[in-house]
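Ticket #499: bound-state structure for 4-nitrophenyl beta-D-glucopyranoside.
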Amino acid sequence: MDRRHFLTATALGATANQLLPGLLDGQRGADLAESDPQAALQKASRTFPTNFWWGAATAAYQLEGAAAEDGRKPSIWDTFSHTKGKVVNGDTGDVACDHYHRYKDDVELMAELGVKHYRFSISWPRVIPDGRGTVNQKGVDFYKRLCDELRAHGITPHATLYHWDLPQALQDKYKGWQSREIVNDFADYATAMVNGLGDRVTHWMTLNEILTFSVVGYGVGNTAPHAPGLALARKKDQLQIIHHALLAHGHACQAIRAAAKGTCSVAIAENFSPYVPVVETPEHIEAARLAFTRTDFNGAIITPLLTGKYDPYWLAQQGAEAPDVKAGDMELIHQKLDALGFNCYTGTYVRAANTPAGFETLDTFEGYPRMALPWLTLVPESIYWGIRMITDALGQKALPIFISENGCADSGPVSSTREMQDTDRVMYLRQYLRQVQRAVDDGYPVVGYFPWSLMDNFEWAEGYTKRFGLVHVDYATQKRTPKLSYRWFQQVIKSGVVR
Ligand code: PNW
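RESOLUTION: The complex was predicted; output attached.
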C-alpha cells in the first residue's frame, strides 16, 4: 500500500473524513493527456486533488476599519497604533480597507478569483467590547452578514478567534496574556462565538501565530515592535505568556466542541519554524529534524500543542527560565486537532555538524534573494519541509495540514496602466506552491492553501507601506484592483496545476 492510500485508509478520524471528503484519496483534476501515458503521468503528478481547499486569508484589524462603530471598543492594536512612533507614518487600522462596509464587494472579488474557502478573523473587541461579559449583538451581526454573503457565493468560512487584537480592557484589567485569567475569558469568548455563529461557521481556528504575538509583542529587557510592545524582565515571563496562550488554545478547543451543534473542525494557525536540509541526504535530513525540534521556539509551541509535552531538549536548555506548569496543564494544551494551519513565509537552511545540538544553521548572505521585507528571504523548500516535519519529527501522520498563510510584500510601485504587475509575487507563490505540490505528491496530508492576503491591508508596524495583497487597494479611494498574481492564482485554481 503506498503512503497516500495508507493515510486514507487509516489516518483520518470520522470528523476529518466528514469534513475533508475525498481530499486525500488521490482524486485528480481532469485534463490528462490520454494519448501519451508518460506525459499523463507527469501531468498527473502535478495536479492538486479536486477537493483541495483553495482559499484566501485576511485578519480583522488589518482590513475591517469601522474601529469605533456599532459598539466596538479598542484593542491593544488600536492603542498601540495611536501611540506616536509605533507604526510607520502613524498609520492605524481606523479605516483600513473599510471591509466592514465593503464586504460584499470583497466577497465578489473572492468569487471571481475562484476560491471556495475564506480565512478571516473575528475581532474580539467588536463582539465582546470589554473582553468578558456582555456580547455586542451588532458586532456578531456583522460576521453573520459576512458569512451569509460567503455562503451565497459557495465559499466556506474559516474563522480565527484571535489574530492579535486583544480587547484593551483585558490588557488594563490583568495585563492580558501575562495573566492566567485570560484562559477562561478566551474560552468564554469562543463559546459565545460558536453560539452566535455556529449555524454558519463550522471551521474554527483558535489563535494565530502564538510565536509572533508573544515574541514580537514582548521584548525581554527591551520594548517590542508589535502591540502591546512591552518589555519583560526575563525570558521566563515570555515563556509564561506562551504557556497561557497554549492553555487558552486548549480550553477554547474544548469550548468550541462543547458549544457546537453538529460536526465542526478545530485548528490553530501557527508559524512554526521550518528547517531545510541544504542537501537532501539522510544525514542533513536528520540535522533538519533535530533543528526542528531543538531550536527556539518550536519546542515551546508546536511540540506541546501536538504532543502534550514541551520538547525535553528545549526544556533542559531553559533551566530556571522554564514556565510554571500546573497539574493538568499539559493535558489541557494537548487537544486533538482536526487540522493544523501552517503559516509559512520563510525558513532556515541547516546541515549536519559536530555541535552539541547535532546541526548548524546556514547564513544567507547579502545578495541572497529576499522579498520586499528584510526578514522575508526566499526559501520555497521551507513549506515542504515544514509540512514534512509535522509527520517526521512530531509523528503526526494523520493530521491534515493546510497552509493558512503564505505570501510576500511586493516591491511596488506597480504599474497601474494596464494591471498591477506584481511579477515578484507570482514568482514567490509559484515556487512555494510547487513545494506544496511536492508534499501532496509524497502523500503528506496537505488539504488546502490560503495565500496571504486577499488584498493589501494594514501590515502591523509597517502600516500601509507594505502590500501583501493579490488585490491592490487604493487607500484614498478604497478602489480595489486585481494584480497580476490574482490572475495567476485564478488560473491555478481553475486548472488545479501550478505552472
Ligand atoms: C503574519 N516576522 O505575521 C501574520 O499572521 C499576518 O497578520 C501578517 O500580515 C503576515 O504574516 C505578513 O507579515 C508575521 O517578523 C509578522 O517574522 C512578522 C513575522 C512573521 C509573520
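RESOLUTION NOTES: The radius of gyration is 22 Å.
TICKET STATUS: resolved
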